[in-house]
Structures are given as structure tokens and as C-alpha cells.
Amino acid sequence: MGLTLIISGGNHDNWDTIARLSVDTDGVATVHPNIRILPRGGRAQIEGLAIGGLGGAFSVDFENRTEGRDWWPNEQPTREEAAALVAGGPLDILITHDAPAGMPLKSDFQLSAQLSENANKTRNLIREVADSLTVPHLFCGHWHQRRTHELKHPDGKITRVDVLDMEHSRHGNGVLVWPGKPPLRIEPLEIRGPKPNDSHRGTS
Asked: Is the pTM of this model over 0.85?
């Protein structure tokens, strides 16, 4: 069975490189024949589903990282990218990296008030987009936890939010989405790659 992974960049990804990727006519950039990335604020029609992307997040540990190596200042989505996504109209699926505000998630980090405020900017922005589009499904990561939650919007509509776990988790660091009409059939998917202590590890 052939699978195509549709991904949205995270806060530790090289956004300078992502920005230089050539976006195909269908609105998605190809990094491998079976791995495709949605630009921030972009959208595509895939298997009859309208899918939008708003990747990126704030790195709460950015002071311990090196710019251009494992941290990029443009790691967070912008209001302009969010506005472009909303202007495009309804979506069936929204793929982000951070979770929208209002999700019952607890971090292991003890953050200062300033770091919390900076981190919440992206979450609030994603929530605004989710409220505006009342998208049926939202997939995200960032928190290294597997959670499913129904987010209720001001108009009473519901978004099912799937927070994916971290790499090498059997709880599901990906999801298998079956084409159809929302609500969609969703199954957890474990994506395996080289572990950090593997002798033939890849680059990230």
C-alpha cells in the first residue's frame, strides 16, 4: 500500500530551507516522492480533501540553541500567513505544529511569564484560525503527548484535535486519514526512523 505523508514544519525545522522549496501546482512542496510539506498559510486538495497548513511554534529553549543550526527566528507562523489561510475559505483538515489555545495540555517545563506569553502567541493564532474556519479536523504535535480533544467554537461547531506524540512513540506520532467526508476515519500511525543512539542516524 502506497502512503503519502503530508507534514507541517515544526519549530526545530530549518524554515529558511523550507521557504526555498518549490511549491508544486497543487499547493504542496515535495521533499521526497512520498513526503510532502504544506507551506505556512498554504492549502491543497488531496484525495478530495481541502487541507491547510500553519506550521511552526515558539521554542521555549531558544536561548540554549544556535541560530542557523537548530533554531531559526522565523519559526512561528505570522498573522499574514493565518489571514491567507482564512481567506481561502473552508478546510476539511488543518495541519499545524503547535496546538490551539483551549487544549487541555500540561507542559513539563516551568516557564517564566514572558516565555509563556511568547509561546501562547502561536496557540492563540491557531485558535483564531480554527474558530474562523470551524475546520472538522486539526492535527498537531509539539507537546510530545498523544491527546484527542473536541474543541467547541463560538458557533457551536466542533473541531476534533489530534495531538500527535513524539518520535518513536507507539501511541502514534502520525495518523492515517482515510478519504471521505468529515468526520473522517482516523487511525494512529507509528512512524519509525533511526533513534538518536543509532550508528546510522539521519540528519534533522
From this structure: no
